[in-house]
Amino acid sequence: MEGNIWLVGLIVLLMCSMFFMQARSAKKNKKVQEEMRSQVVIGAEVMTVGGIIGRIVAMDNSKNTITIESGTSQIVLTARAIHSVVTPVAPVSIPEVKAEETEVAEKTEE
């Protein structure tokens, strides 16, 4: 009878450790995917899950689609179809113009 209790305890311990390892691996994969998705910007060269390599020319966040150009063809894909970023591009940030700077510029023009 004692042997059965130890066996059940061992099985429960193994199942808990497998669950922990799986959760840890899923968290790591999610972090890698988020990092890759942050590199998906217009101008980046990407590879799709189908193996097509192209450059991103347009993104539509409302429809969750990306248009890539491969050779002379343009293909519209869902964002999840991007497998990896082949050549990352630094995202371009547009500087914001403050209202005070606009007023100063208008006054100097008069």
Structural description of this entry:
With 110 residues, this protein is an alpha+beta fold. It folds into two domains: 38 residues; 70 residues, SH3 type barrels (Roll), CATH 2.30.30. The chain is built from two helices and five strands. The radius of gyration is 25 Å and the shape is rod-shaped. The relative contact order is 0.12.
Question: Summary?
Answer:
Helix content is 44%, strand content 27%.
| Helix-strand topology string | HEEEEEH
How many domains? The number is 2
Mean of pLDDT: 80
Helical segment count: 2
And the CATH topology of the largest domain? SH3 type barrels
Primary descriptors:
110 residues; alpha+beta; SH3 type barrels; five-stranded antiparallel beta sheet; rod-shaped
Topology:
Layout: H1 2-38, E1 45-48, E2 53-60, E3 65-70, E4 73-78, E5 82-87, H2 99-109
